[in-house]
Amino acid sequence: MCKKLFLMVLMVVFILSTSYVAFGNDITYGDLNGDGVVDSSDLVLMNRHVLEIALLDDITVADLNGDGVVDSTDYTLLSRYVLEYIDEFPVEEETTVPSDGEINLGSTITYSGDGINVDGSTVTISSGGEYTVDGTLSDGMIWVDTTEEVGLRLNNVDITNSNGPAIYFENASNAEIILETGTTNSLTDGNSNVYDTDDVDVEGALASNADLEIKGNGTLNVTGNYDHGIISYTDLIIESGNIIVSSAVTDGIHAKDYIEIAGGNVEIDADSDGIDSKGDVSVEAGAVLDITAGKHGITANGDMSIAGGEFTINADSNGTTSDGDTTIINGDFNINSESDGIDADGNISIQGGDFLIVTGNDGVDSSSSIEISGGNFDIDVEKHGITADEDIEIVNGDIKIVAERDGFNADGSVIIEDGVIDIESGEEAFDVDGDFTVYDGEINAIAPEDTIDISGDIMIFSGIFDITSTESDAIDSSSSITISGGTFYLDAGKHGITADEDVRVVDGDFSIVSVGDGFNTDLDIVIEGGVINIEAGDEGFDTDVGDLTVEDGEINIVSYEEGLDITGDIIINGGTFDIKSTSDSDDAIDSNSSITINGGTFVLEAGKHGITADENITIVDGDFTINVGRDGIDAGDDVLIKGGTFEITNGNDGIEADNIVIEGGDINITSYENSLDPSENLTISGGNLYLISENESAIEVNDNMNVTISGGYTVAAGSNGLNGGIQCDLNDFGITGGTLIAVGGVNTVPTPDLSTQCTVMLGEASANSTISITSNSGEILSFTAPKDFENMLFTSPDLLSNRSYDVYVDGNHSVSFTTDSLVTNAGGTGFFPPWLE
Predict the structure, then answer these.
(1) How do the residues of the chain divide into helix, strand and coil, expressed in percent and rounded to 5?
(2) Is the pLDDT of residue 194 over 90?
(3) What long-range pairs does 601-604 form, CB within 8 A, spacing at least 24?
(4) What is the pLDDT of residues 699-729, one digit of tens each?
(5) Global pTM value
(6) Separation CA 816–CA 763 (nearest Å)
(7) How far apart are CA 596 and CA 568, in angstroms?
(8) Which label site among 191, 247, 500, 716 has the fewest CB atoms less than 10 Å from its CB?
(9) 831 has pLDDT over 70
C-alpha cells in the first residue's frame, strides 16, 4: 500500500514539474506545437481549434489576450505576430510599474503614492506609474504632466469638468486607460474649455498629447460637450472594453496620427465624424462598433484596414472614408448613410464580409480601383451601387444591388472572374468607360437604359447572364464584343447585343427577345458556334456597313423585319438556320452586297424573299427549305448554284437574278410566277431541277438574252395558254447537253445553230399521266406529268439523230416520230420558227 502511494505522489510531482517547464517561467505564447518558434504551423493548429476541428488540450499558450478563451481574436493576434505587425501579445504586456498610486475622488480627494498633487478639484500626476482611480469628481479633472509612462486604472470613476477635459494627458511617454473589470466609468467635459487656447489644443473630454491606449473589461462613458469625445494628438489604440461616446460636438474619437481598434465594444453618437484619424485606421476582428455620426462614420486621412468586426453605422455623410487605400478582409457591416457607404480616394480591396449598405449616394466608391474577392453584399442606393474612377475587379462574392442610377460605374475597366451579381438599376446596370471582361459567374440585371453599357471591348468567356433592358439595349459596346461561351437570357427594349465595331461569337447559348434587333453592329458579325435563339421586333442580325460570317452553330430567328439584314457580305460555311420574317415586306436573309454559302441547313420563311442580295449569290452546298411570299432566291446581279438541296415554295419567282448559273444541286421549286427568272442569261450545266410555276412559265428569260443548257436534269412545268415550261428568245436558246422536260402552254424551241442535241416537241397530256418515249434500243424517257399541259419539249443526250421513237401516254401509243433534224415537231403546239410550221 505504501509503495502504491509513493508511486502516485511521484507521478504527480513529475506532472507538475513538466508542466512548470512547459508553461511556467518559460512560456512561449503562440508556440502551439512546442517547437520553440511561432510560425504558420501554429496558425494552422489555432485555426483548427477555433473551427472546432481539433481542440487543444491546453489553451494556455493560445490565449493571447488573456480573456480565458481561444477564439478569432486570438487567431488575428497570432496572424499579426507571424506577419510581424506586432512583436508581443496583450497577455505578455507588462503593466506599468505603479508608484503605489491610488486616488480616491470625492468632495475631499485622498491619495497615496508619489507624484500626485491635489489643487482644489484638480489632481495632477507628475510621475510615471500606474494609478488606480475611483470615486466621483463633480467639477474637476485629472491632469498628467510627466516624461514617463502613465496608466490610469479606472474603478467606477465619474469625472465632470465644466470648463475643460475630465482627463488630460498633457505630457507622458505613453498614456493608458485601464477599465477595471465590471466597472462603469464616466468622463464629461463642459461646453467651454479654458485649456484650449491659440497655442495649445485641448479638444476632448479625454485628451492626450501622448500615444493613448484604452483597454480592460469595464465600461467607459464619454460625453463631449466642447469638441471631441476622445482625442489623441498622436496614436490611439482601443484594445478592449466597452467605450460609449455620446453627444460629441464634433468627432466621437479623434487622433492626429494612427487609430487602432483591436477589440472591445465601441458605441458613438457624434455631431461630426464617429471616428476620425489624420493617419491610418485599423480595426481587428472582435471589435464591435455602433456609430451614429453627423458626418462620416469612420474616416482616415491615410489608409483604412479592417480585418473583421461588427459595424453598425448611421452617418449623414459617408459610412467609411479614407484618403488612402481601404482594405477589408472580413466583417459584418450595416451602413446607412446620406452619402457613400464605403468611400476611398485610394484603392478599395474587399476580401470577405457581410455588407448591408443603404445610402443616399454610392454604395462603394473609389477614386482609384476596387477589387472584391468575396463577401455578401446587399446594396440599396440613390446613385451608383459600386463605382470607381479606375478599374473594378470582381473575383468572387454574392452582390445584390438596387440603385437609382448605375449598378456598377467605372471610368476604367470591369473584370468579373466569378460570383453572383443581381442588379436592379434606374439607369444602366453596368456603365463602364473601359473594357468589360467576364470569365465566369452569374449576372442577373434589369435596367431601363442599356443594361450592360461598355465604352471599350466586351469579352465574355463563360457565365450565366439574365439581362433585361426595358427601354434600350441589353448588351451594348462602343467598341467590339467577343463571346466565347456562356448562357444568355436577354430581354431588350431595343437591341439584344449591339456594338459600334465587331461582334464575334465563338460559343454560347443565347435566348434573345428584343423590340429592336437581336444582334446589331456597325461593322462585322462573326459566328463560329453556339446556339442563338432570337425573337426580334426588327431584324435578327443587322449591320451598318459590316459583313456576316458564320462558320458553325445554330441560329433560330423569328423577326418582324429581316432575319439577317447585312449591309456587307454574307459568308456562311456551315451551321443550322431556322429563320422566319413575319412581315409581308421583309426577307429572311438579306445582303446589300454579296452572299456566299458553302454549307449549312436552312429553313427560311418570309413575307418577301428567302435569300436576297444586291450583288451576287453563290451557293456551293447546303440544305434549303424556303417558303416565302415573293422570291425564294433573289440577286441584283448573279446567282451561282454549285450544289445543295433546295425545296422552294414561293408566291413570286423561285430564283431571280440578272444571270443565273446552275452547276449542280437538287433544286425543287414551286412558284406562283417563274421558277427561274433571269433578266439576262441562264446557264444550266448540272444538277437536278424540278420547277413548277402555277401561273406563268417555269423558266422565263427576256428577249435577246442567252439560255444555255449543257447538263443536268431539268423538269420545267409552267401554266397553259401563253405560258409554258420555258420561254426565251428563239435566237439565243442553245442546248448542248443535259435533259430538259418543259411542259405548259407554249415552249420555246432551241436555236439549231446553238444546239448540238436533238429536241422533240410533243402535244398535250393530263396531270399525273405517264409519258414514255421508246426506241429500238429501249426507253429513253418515263415522265409523270405534274399538271395538265398543252405542249411538251423534251431533249436528252439519249434522243439521238435520225432515229425513230414511239410516244406512249399511260401505256397507250400516242405518236411516232423520227429525229431527222435537231428539232422535231411531233404534235406540239405553240410558237415555232418558220422551219417547224
Answers:
(1) 5, 50, 45
(2) no
(3) 601/575, 601/576, 601/577, 602/577, 602/626, 603/577, 603/578, 603/579, 604/563, 604/577, 604/579, 604/580, 604/628
(4) 999 888 999 999 999 999 999 988 999 999 8
(5) 0.84
(6) 12
(7) 12
(8) 191
(9) no
